[in-house]
Amino acid sequence: MDRYCVFGNPIAHSKSPDIHAAFAAQTGQQLSYERRLAPLDGFAAAVQDFIAEGGKGANVTVPFKLEAVKVAQALTIRARAAGAVNTLHFTDEGIIGDNTDGVGLVADIVRNAGVPITGKRVLLLGAGGAARGVVLPILEYRPAQLVIANRTVATAEALVEQFAALGGEGVVSACGYAEIQGAYDIIINATSASLSAELPPVPASVFAPEALALDMMYGAQPTVFLQFAAQHGARLRDGLGMLVEQAAEAFSLWRGVQPETAAVLKALREQL
Fold it and tell me: What does the alpha-carbon distance between residue 93 and residue 95 come to, in Å, rounded to a whole number?
């Protein structure tokens, strides 16, 4: 039986085994998928050990997504653009590093939430690893505007410099939170503020009528950011759909079959 896993530290909370087990049952694929706790100073060795045990691929979560770039012998375009890897594919040619986070996010927005990105104004809060992974997939949908807001403006400006040519003239721009102007159709919180129940310092005016507010975090209760967005008329979406969709993309990469995500997402939602 082909073996897969997710590496992280901590890892006990990961829902990835449940998701991939559901995908396998749905598609008739014979595989096993487990959680693997990698030592903070021993990720590369943990990957090699898993390969030696017959592992075929792995997902990578906090805090190893940057280290996974170094472990990979080849990177996909989207992994190179993100500067981070969340999916490893062990092949005869070597270890291929991919990043399915951004594809998962846009699939959740466009397909699950039914909100088009094309021609819309998008505000991305944060410029760290989570934000980096989604810029390219968002730009592939041709938004009218993508503004990246961050506490450290220089970090956001570096992202803009990297992706400006892909977005077209004036489409991608950067600013500090205090300089955010206008209203947006889609507002994505890619900061870690929700982990500490903090609100990114954004004005209420960012939410256009019928705006979609998405927080990459998820839980039984809406995050502080989503509560704030709800008070100003936005539609709400947490990161659970992104989690399921990025897993579906990884599963497709490994197995060559695209699983259906709706029933899996519904089941996970009911477990929260």
Answer: 7
